[in-house]
Amino acid sequence: MTLLDEQLGGKYEVLEKVRVGGMGAIYKVRHRLLDEIRVVKVIRRPGVEGSPAVPAANAQESSPPVKPEESPARVSALPRKPPPRMEPGNMILRSFPGVQEPEVKQLASYSYPAAAKGSGKRLSLRVAVLVDENGQVIDARIRQGKPSGLGFEEVAPAAARKAQFFPATRDGIAGKMWTELVLELAE
After folding, report:
1. By the 8 A CB rule, do 155 and 108 touch?
2. Which residues contact 103 (CB under 8 A, 6 or more apart)?
3. pLDDT(109) > 80
4. Half-sphere exposure of residue 34: CA atoms within 13 angstroms, side-chain side
Protein backbone atom coordinates (compact mmCIF):
# COMPACT_ATOMS: atom_id res chain seq x y z
CA MET A 1 0.00 0.00 0.00
CA THR A 2 1.41 3.39 -0.97
CA LEU A 3 1.55 6.42 1.29
CA LEU A 4 -1.25 7.98 -0.77
CA ASP A 5 -3.46 4.88 -0.34
CA GLU A 6 -2.89 5.01 3.42
CA GLN A 7 -3.80 8.71 3.51
CA LEU A 8 -7.02 8.02 1.61
CA GLY A 9 -7.92 5.31 4.13
CA GLY A 10 -8.32 2.56 1.51
CA LYS A 11 -11.73 3.98 0.49
CA TYR A 12 -10.60 5.21 -2.91
CA GLU A 13 -8.83 3.83 -5.96
CA VAL A 14 -6.64 6.54 -7.52
CA LEU A 15 -7.44 6.83 -11.23
CA GLU A 16 -5.20 9.75 -12.15
CA LYS A 17 -3.35 12.76 -10.83
CA VAL A 18 -5.28 15.77 -12.17
CA ARG A 19 -3.09 18.66 -11.06
CA VAL A 20 -0.06 19.36 -8.88
CA GLY A 21 0.60 22.66 -7.18
CA GLY A 22 2.74 24.13 -4.45
CA MET A 23 0.22 23.16 -1.73
CA GLY A 24 -0.51 19.62 -2.89
CA ALA A 25 -2.20 17.64 -5.62
CA ILE A 26 -5.68 16.87 -6.90
CA TYR A 27 -6.55 13.28 -7.77
CA LYS A 28 -9.43 11.73 -9.69
CA VAL A 29 -10.52 8.71 -7.61
CA ARG A 30 -13.19 6.00 -7.56
CA HIS A 31 -15.00 5.28 -4.27
CA ARG A 32 -14.50 1.53 -3.86
CA LEU A 33 -17.90 0.75 -2.28
CA LEU A 34 -20.18 3.22 -4.03
CA ASP A 35 -18.43 2.95 -7.42
CA GLU A 36 -18.61 6.73 -7.81
CA ILE A 37 -15.98 8.95 -9.38
CA ARG A 38 -14.83 11.76 -7.10
CA VAL A 39 -12.04 14.31 -6.79
CA VAL A 40 -9.90 14.62 -3.67
CA LYS A 41 -7.26 17.17 -2.80
CA VAL A 42 -4.20 16.02 -0.91
CA ILE A 43 -2.56 18.93 0.92
CA ARG A 44 1.01 18.48 2.06
CA ARG A 45 2.65 20.24 4.93
CA PRO A 46 5.82 22.14 4.10
CA GLY A 47 8.92 20.02 4.48
CA VAL A 48 7.22 16.61 4.27
CA GLU A 49 9.66 14.35 2.48
CA GLY A 50 8.21 11.83 0.05
CA SER A 51 4.78 13.45 -0.07
CA PRO A 52 2.73 12.05 -2.96
CA ALA A 53 1.54 15.57 -3.73
CA VAL A 54 4.96 17.00 -4.58
CA PRO A 55 7.90 14.66 -5.28
CA ALA A 56 10.94 15.26 -3.07
CA ALA A 57 13.05 16.13 -6.15
CA ASN A 58 10.81 19.15 -6.86
CA ALA A 59 10.61 20.35 -3.27
CA GLN A 60 12.85 23.31 -2.50
CA GLU A 61 12.78 23.73 1.24
CA SER A 62 15.04 26.02 3.25
CA SER A 63 14.79 23.84 6.36
CA PRO A 64 15.63 20.13 6.59
CA PRO A 65 12.75 17.84 5.55
CA VAL A 66 10.50 16.29 8.16
CA LYS A 67 9.87 12.53 8.09
CA PRO A 68 6.34 11.65 6.86
CA GLU A 69 5.44 9.77 10.05
CA GLU A 70 6.17 12.92 12.08
CA SER A 71 4.11 15.27 9.91
CA PRO A 72 1.84 13.44 7.46
CA ALA A 73 0.06 15.10 4.56
CA ARG A 74 -3.52 16.06 5.24
CA VAL A 75 -6.22 14.64 2.95
CA SER A 76 -9.52 16.38 2.51
CA ALA A 77 -12.33 15.30 0.22
CA LEU A 78 -14.71 17.78 1.86
CA PRO A 79 -14.26 20.31 4.64
CA ARG A 80 -14.56 18.73 8.08
CA LYS A 81 -17.86 19.68 9.66
CA PRO A 82 -19.74 18.04 12.49
CA PRO A 83 -22.24 15.48 11.18
CA PRO A 84 -25.70 16.90 10.56
CA ARG A 85 -28.44 16.35 13.12
CA MET A 86 -29.90 12.92 12.48
CA GLU A 87 -33.46 12.82 11.18
CA PRO A 88 -35.33 9.62 10.24
CA GLY A 89 -34.45 8.64 6.68
CA ASN A 90 -31.22 10.66 6.43
CA MET A 91 -28.22 9.11 4.69
CA ILE A 92 -25.75 7.67 7.21
CA LEU A 93 -22.01 7.49 6.62
CA ARG A 94 -19.74 5.00 8.38
CA SER A 95 -17.52 7.84 9.53
CA PHE A 96 -20.26 9.34 11.72
CA PRO A 97 -20.11 8.54 15.43
CA GLY A 98 -22.81 6.29 16.92
CA VAL A 99 -23.44 4.31 13.70
CA GLN A 100 -24.86 0.77 13.59
CA GLU A 101 -24.60 -0.67 10.07
CA PRO A 102 -27.52 -2.50 8.41
CA GLU A 103 -27.74 -6.24 9.10
CA VAL A 104 -29.29 -8.90 6.90
CA LYS A 105 -32.63 -10.10 8.25
CA GLN A 106 -33.58 -12.36 5.34
CA LEU A 107 -32.15 -13.10 1.89
CA ALA A 108 -34.61 -13.65 -0.92
CA SER A 109 -34.67 -16.71 -3.11
CA TYR A 110 -33.83 -16.22 -6.76
CA SER A 111 -34.36 -18.05 -10.02
CA TYR A 112 -31.22 -19.36 -11.66
CA PRO A 113 -31.03 -17.71 -15.12
CA ALA A 114 -32.59 -19.88 -17.84
CA ALA A 115 -29.68 -19.14 -20.20
CA ALA A 116 -27.23 -20.51 -17.61
CA LYS A 117 -29.10 -23.75 -16.79
CA GLY A 118 -27.00 -26.77 -17.57
CA SER A 119 -23.82 -24.68 -17.71
CA GLY A 120 -22.79 -25.67 -14.18
CA LYS A 121 -21.70 -22.07 -13.56
CA ARG A 122 -21.29 -20.98 -9.95
CA LEU A 123 -20.70 -17.33 -9.23
CA SER A 124 -19.90 -15.35 -6.14
CA LEU A 125 -20.98 -11.75 -6.68
CA ARG A 126 -20.46 -8.76 -4.41
CA VAL A 127 -23.44 -6.43 -4.68
CA ALA A 128 -23.54 -2.92 -3.19
CA VAL A 129 -27.01 -2.22 -1.80
CA LEU A 130 -28.61 0.95 -0.48
CA VAL A 131 -30.83 0.05 2.48
CA ASP A 132 -33.51 2.55 3.50
CA GLU A 133 -34.75 3.39 7.00
CA ASN A 134 -37.34 0.56 6.80
CA GLY A 135 -34.77 -2.12 5.93
CA GLN A 136 -35.79 -2.24 2.25
CA VAL A 137 -33.17 -2.30 -0.51
CA ILE A 138 -33.78 0.68 -2.80
CA ASP A 139 -30.73 0.34 -5.07
CA ALA A 140 -28.40 -2.56 -5.96
CA ARG A 141 -25.26 -2.61 -8.11
CA ILE A 142 -22.89 -5.47 -8.90
CA ARG A 143 -19.48 -4.52 -7.48
CA GLN A 144 -17.22 -7.50 -8.10
CA GLY A 145 -17.44 -10.71 -10.08
CA LYS A 146 -19.34 -9.13 -12.96
CA PRO A 147 -20.79 -11.97 -15.00
CA SER A 148 -20.65 -11.98 -18.76
CA GLY A 149 -24.01 -12.86 -20.21
CA LEU A 150 -26.18 -15.82 -19.22
CA GLY A 151 -28.57 -13.56 -17.25
CA PHE A 152 -26.66 -13.27 -13.95
CA GLU A 153 -26.38 -9.49 -14.34
CA GLU A 154 -30.18 -9.24 -13.97
CA VAL A 155 -30.69 -11.97 -11.37
CA ALA A 156 -28.11 -10.75 -8.80
CA PRO A 157 -29.38 -7.15 -8.38
CA ALA A 158 -33.00 -8.37 -8.45
CA ALA A 159 -32.28 -10.91 -5.68
CA ALA A 160 -30.42 -8.26 -3.67
CA ARG A 161 -33.38 -5.85 -3.96
CA LYS A 162 -35.66 -8.49 -2.40
CA ALA A 163 -33.44 -8.94 0.68
CA GLN A 164 -34.71 -7.66 4.04
CA PHE A 165 -32.45 -5.80 6.50
CA PHE A 166 -32.48 -4.37 9.96
CA PRO A 167 -31.83 -0.73 8.98
CA ALA A 168 -28.74 1.28 9.81
CA THR A 169 -29.05 3.61 12.76
CA ARG A 170 -27.17 6.61 14.04
CA ASP A 171 -27.79 7.51 17.64
CA GLY A 172 -30.75 5.10 17.59
CA ILE A 173 -32.48 6.77 14.60
CA ALA A 174 -32.94 4.70 11.40
CA GLY A 175 -31.58 6.02 8.12
CA LYS A 176 -30.28 5.01 4.69
CA MET A 177 -26.87 3.42 4.23
CA TRP A 178 -24.86 1.60 1.59
CA THR A 179 -23.62 -1.87 2.50
CA GLU A 180 -22.49 -4.94 0.62
CA LEU A 181 -23.97 -8.39 0.06
CA VAL A 182 -22.15 -11.45 -1.23
CA LEU A 183 -24.47 -13.61 -3.32
CA GLU A 184 -23.53 -17.19 -4.15
CA LEU A 185 -25.36 -18.12 -7.35
CA ALA A 186 -25.43 -21.82 -8.23
CA GLU A 187 -27.73 -24.17 -10.12
Report:
1. no
2. 165, 166
3. no
4. 14
Torsion of CA 158, 163, 168, 172, to 10 degrees: 140
Instruction: Confirm if 24 and 73 have CB atoms less than 8 A apart.
Output: yes
Which amino acid would we find at residue 3? L
Among residues 178, 179, 176, the alpha carbon closest in space to that of 91 is found at 176
Q: What ranges in 8-164 are assigned the alpha helix state H? A: 152-161
The DSSP bridge pattern shows strands 173-175 and 168-170 to be antiparallel
CA pair distance 104, 110, nearest whole angstrom: 16
pLDDT in tens, 118-134: 766 677 778 899 999 99
For residue 33, what is the DSSP state?
Answer: T
φ and ψ of 158, to 5 deg: -65, -45
State pLDDT tens for residues 147-182. 666 667 777 788 888 999 999 998 889 999 999 988
